[in-house]
Specification:
277 residues; alpha/beta; 8-stranded parallel beta barrel; binds flavin-adenine dinucleotide
Length: 277
């Protein structure tokens, strides 16, 4: 059987306290021997220093660290600098994104879409980095059609992406369907499901409506009825997400990428339910 890829994602810290929280989560999750851990990049590169600091500090450990990278309004020189810094620190993997659009930051951009960033990283650094890109089984909110979603996803792979991580979802059929369509379009890279543990009802609703992740009605109703009972909500959420992960693995998902939100426990709970070694 081919090796499954398990990875953890941390949110970029904006303060020293947040960096300490991230590290604490990492020290609890790292013994699970993930394939890599990634650190997000705030909208428009607004957490550039925080991302860099977390990546550089944790890169001395045993687990490969992968920074997320987007271009915002940055000049090419700034992207070059960042790539150089990461290379010198031994970083060999990154997640290339267009990035969320920060409110209030407008202006001329160096690039418009993630495929251009992938292309640029390949042009300037060759094969040094393993490049992950984002994929959207439930379709990116700005995409007009399923066909255009597949078309532009393929453009990122054709530009040189090695693998992809999906936006989170709670309907595994959306993932299976997306994967089939990609295969039909000749996209053969591993597409690893992004897994969002459920810890907070209101927060999940808010974030899901922004990023276009659908909460199925049955799940929404169950979570709503538990929203004032944090422990029960978390226990129920862990069961639901664990069942979904098991189904994904049973149907040949190449691995799982956990959005940890810098908390170890919700991910550990799912990990233990799945009896992953
Ligand atoms: P793109 O691939 O550029 O796609 C954006 C939209 O444009 C899609 O509708 C696509 O179909 C369309 N499109 C793509 N290429 C073209 C083209 N050449 N011409 C016309 N249309 C095109 N955001 C952050 O700010 N920081 C992070 O760290 C971060 N990490 C993420 C990690 C993962 C695993 C995922 C799934 C998302 C992450 N995001 C992050 C969110 C992401 O930045 C947003 O979803 C963003 O809106 C799109 O980024 P993208 O790289 O997918 O963009």
């Amino acid at each position: 059987m081919t090796e499954r890829l398990f990875s953890f994602e941390y949110s970029a810290p904006r303060t020293n306290e947040a960096l300490e929280k991230l590290k604490k989560a990492h020290y609890r999750l790292n013994p699970l021997k993930p394939h890599f851990c990634s650190v997000t990049y705030g909208a428009g590169g607004s957490t550039k220093e925080g991302t860099q600091q977390a990546i550089l500090e944790l890169s001395s450990g045993s687990t490969p660290m992968a920074p997320h990278l987007s271009f915002g309004n940055d000049p090419l020189l700034a992207i070059d600098e960042l790539l150089k810094t990461y290379r010198s620190a031994g970083v060999s993997r990154l997640v290339a994104l267009r990035g969320d659009q920060p409110s209030g930051i407008l202006g001329r951009k160096t690039m418009t879409h993630a495929n251009e960033l992938v292309n640029y990283v390949r042009e300037t650094t060759g094969d040094h980095f393993h490049i992950d890109v984002a994929a959207y089984p439930e379709i990116h909110p700005e995409s007009e059609t399923v066909d255009s979603e597949i078309h532009y996803f393929k453009a990122k792979v054709d530009a040189g992406a090695d693998s992809a991580i999906t936006q989170y979802f709670y309907n595994p059929d959306s993932y299976f369907r997306f994967r089939d369509l990609c295969l039909k379009a000749g996209v053969n890279v591993p597409i690893v499901p992004g897994i969002m543990p459920i810890t907070n009802y209101e927060g999940l609703l808010r974030f899901s409506s922004l990023c276009g992740a659908e909460i199925p009605r049955w799940l929404d109703k169950n979570l709503k009825s538990l929203k004032h009972d944090k422990d029960s909500l978390r226990a129920f959420g862990a069961d639901v997400v664990s069942d979904m992960c098991q189904r994904l693995l049973d149907h040949d998902a190449p691995g799982l990428h956990f959005y940890t939100l810098n908390q170890a426990m919700p991910t550990l709970r799912i990990w233990n339910n799945l009896r992953l070694s």
